[in-house]
Amino acid sequence: MKRNTLGPWLIMLVGALYFLVPLLGTFEFSLRYRRGVYSFEAYRIVLGDPQFRDTFSYSTVLALATIVVGVVLVVPTAYWIQLRLPGLRPLVEFITLLPLVIPAIVLVFGYLRMYNSSSILPLTGRERTTNLLLMFSYVADQAAAIAQPELEGAQEWDEEVQGAHEHDQPRSQRIALHRSNFSLRPRSQMYAAFDSPVMRIIPSARA
Fold first, then answer.
1. Where are the domains of the chain?
2. How far is 52 from 178, CA to CA, in rounded Å?
3. Residue 32: how many CB atoms within 10 A of its CB?
4. pTM
5. Which residue pairs from 174-181 have beta carbons closer than 8 angstroms and sit at least 24 positions apart in sequence?
6. Phi/psi at 200 (5° precision)
């Protein structure tokens, strides 16, 4: 019996129209800056505005800084928790999900009360520190999206490595660990770093 493929294609078409029709409507509206004719006058005005260029550059730099800082903070933490403190994983997942549960307006007013010019950490008193606060706010907001895949990848990587050592496979060092976004060599170096004496002191000191 031949399988009917019309249904999935119809659903995909409806979903594509759901996203494309508003975009096309917005683009068509932007071309009607001059009454009665289509033109790119609105784009010329916006792209020629120095304030737009400065704002766009600021947003781009802030987005790149957020990605770099988020990866640097979250990725090593995820592997460290998996290797040394696996019992803290539920707590870390709960903390990273808090910014998604708390309304944004509550977070904004909380930041303003905690880091205003009269607080212990007056981060809003200067432009650079305000930008730094905004970047870390974005990092906290995106922590769940970064942490969850890395925690899953670290757990699967650890299980595969332990399984390979238990079965004493001769080619265990060449196992393809594609579940995470890192190759085997950086993972081996990271595992060696977490297995260092410094990392052994931290859990014992907390205990």
1. 8-47, 51-206
2. 41
3. 13
4. 0.62
5. 179/152, 179/153, 180/149, 180/150, 180/153, 180/154, 180/156, 181/149, 181/153
6. -75, -25
Whether residue 153 contacts residue 181, with contact meaning beta carbons closer than 8 Å, is answered with yes
| Residue the block writes with tokens 């770099």 | 68
* Residue 187 token pair: 């993972």
Q: CA distances (Å), 15 to each of 27, 64, 76, in order? A: 19, 30, 38
- The pair of structure tokens assigned to 90 is 């539920």
- Tens of pLDDT, residue by residue over 38-78, are 999 999 999 889 899 899 999 999 999 999 998 898 888 88
Q: Of the candidates 89, 65, 207, 53, which has an alpha carbon nearest to the alpha carbon of residue 142?
A: 65
Strand ranges, E, within the chain = none
